[in-house]
Structure formats: C-alpha cells, structure tokens
What does this fold into?
Amino acid sequence: MSKSDIDKGIVYCNRVLVGNWYEAAQLEEHKIHKFLEQMKNGELLLARYRTMTKNLNEPTILTQSTGRICFGDRISLLAPHVPATDPPTENKKGLLLGGRISANELEYFQDLVDGCSLVGLVQTEPAKRNTFVITSADYCNREGETLKYNQEFLLTLASSLEKKPLYVRYDPNPIPGLCGLYPLYLSENPVSNTRWRFLPVQRPNITRFEQEGLPVQVNVDIVVNHCATNVNLGINVGKWAFGFHGKICTPLMKTCLDIYGRELPNNIWQIYIPIAT
It folds into this structure.
C-alpha cells in the first residue's frame, strides 16, 4: 500500500490532540463555572432585568382622600390631557410621571437612585416608580397639614423614604448635552432646584391671585410650577423614546400658553388620588 493511500484514511476529529487543546478545554470549563456563579448571584443581564422590573413595578397604595391633599400624602402626578400613544389614538390619554433606568444604568443598579431621570409613563397603575410624597420645604414638620396653592414643597420618591430621600430636581442651566432628553432627575440634596408649587389653572371667572392660599384639591386640573425658575412642568408629546416596558414620553420644562394666556394641555396635571367613598 502506498503512502498516499494511508494518508487518505487519516481523519482529524475532536479526539485528535492538535494545537492548544488543553487551554481551550480549560477556558470552556472556566466559562461554565463563571456562568453558574453569575446565575447564582443574580448578575446575569436577564436576572438584573427581572430584579429591576420587580423593584420599579411593585404595586403601591396611594393615600385615600376626600378632596384635599396634605403633607405626607402618597400621590401620583397624572397628565390627563396628553395622548398616551405614539401616534396619538382617540380615547387613550394620560401619562404618569415616574422614574426610569436606562440600559447603561441597568448594569450598575436595579432600583431608582440619585441621578435617575424622570419620564412620562404610559402605565397608569400606582407603582413604586411613580409614587411620590409631599414633603415640607421649610424643614418644619408639617405632616397632616393641608397643602395650599402657591405653597412650596418637595416632591419625594415614596420608596426612598426608607433609605435616603430622593427629590425631584430640575437644573435650569445644565451643561450642554449633560441632561439629554430628560431634564428632570432624582437628587439626594434638597436644594432650591428641588422646590415646587401647585398653581390653579387660569379661569375666565376668577383670577389666579384670588385662589392663592386655597387648599389644593385632588383629581382637579392644576399647574406644577418650579419655584427657582418660575417655569411650568409639562410633557413633550413630540418626543418619545423606547424603554424596557414600552414607549416613554419626555418631560418638558416650559410654560406653554395659548393666545389667551391659558396653559396648554401639556402643562396641565392632576394629583392622582382615588377619592374615598
């Protein structure tokens, strides 16, 4: 038999120990052990996503009220007159203000922390990500006192009260490109940029000045005003983005008025609290 005929019978397979076979086998074993360890510790991307979803979408109970709102109440802010879909769909309106975690942030934390941005959420069920507490802005204990129009307060994330409070903040002159699409974010520091106030909507039969000092009513159209800049909080219905749980709408810090000096629908909010019956 010639040498060429012998060579034809040689077939290389996985059992042939050629090259860096030992290093490759050890690398595969290391990858398997690392994967099992990450799965056990919840460090996989899917595990992080599940943890984030559980933390953000955990149901909460809002404060029951007979019409007035008080300091210490757990509320949600609803923009009732803006479309809840993109493109707009008839009879589908209303966005809740709530926190978000981006894809880049998911690797480092799975709950809302200092620096997380706020957006308009399509989901209108009360959850940890969209539940806030009205907190006093003058460092006095006003628990249970009625909140009045034009009275300053801090909007605190309800789930953060158990740890370190996080306040809704807006910086009027940020570094260009720093905040991106989302001007609102959560901050641990209760500074002047975290102070807000509720104003009544403009009406033809009564002025805003005449309503100053009256109790703020729930489930009634109001304006959310930033104390430091005197601009109104709104929803930018022209800018939508994709999030982990569907589309989200970007907030807008701008006073939008019509030709009669009245606020436009994207500047109108409601304190969303189910009224006790």
In short: The chain has four helices and twelve strands. The helical segments are 3-8, 21-41, 45-56, 208-211.
